[in-house]
Fold this sequence. Notes:
Order of helices and strands: EEEEHEHEEEHHEEE
Strand order of the largest sheet: 1-6-5-9-8-7-11
Number of domains: 1
CATH topology: M1 Pyruvate Kinase, Domain 3
Largest sheet: 7 strands, mixed, barrel
Strand content: 35-45%
Helix content: 10-25%
Amino acid sequence: MQGVVEEIFVTTRGSAAMESVEEVETVEGCGIQGDRYCEGTGFWTQYGDVCQITLIEGEHLDEIEEQGLDIKSGQHRRNIVTRGVDLLGLRGKRFRVGEVVLEYDRSRPPCKHVQDLSERGMTRALRNRGGICARVIQAGPIRSGDAIEEA
């Protein structure tokens, strides 16, 4: 497996627009420094449903965009857009993203909240393409263009 980080998105609080950035710093056992779930301000934090880092396949976003939905500006609500990686194939594995070691946590199906913040049809479009959650095992920076490979 050899993939790449295509884009990175963060937001400081739940329901706020995602911001595209070139680099983030990760915190072991927490996620992305300054991102809503590491900061405890995510929408789902109040329900105990926290993902340290979320990843989604860029190829799936291409398919959704072909359906006419605006998905490429962070409306997917995921932190890292990958290219060339079967994310569900990482189940039970650790993988390296640049200098960082992540571990597959669980799949991240879409929720109605994503649609509430974007447009009608988004939840259905993301079904079976919602990405995964991962835990930070070894912290460091993640940059756009970083390689993704099994650890």
